[in-house]
Fold this protein.
Amino acid sequence: MTETQKKATGKGTARHTCQMCGRKQGLVSRYHILFCRQCFREWAPKMGFKKMD
């Protein structure tokens, strides 16, 4: 894929960012939450998620 094709399709760049801190890597996008993994670990108990053993 050439650079112009990447720009046209949006592949190769992060399209979403964390809603809390703005990171582009390590996103938890399940259920359309869009938190990075660090913010998700902080906010998950407040949102009702429970850690499985």
About this structure: The longest strand covers residues 27-28.
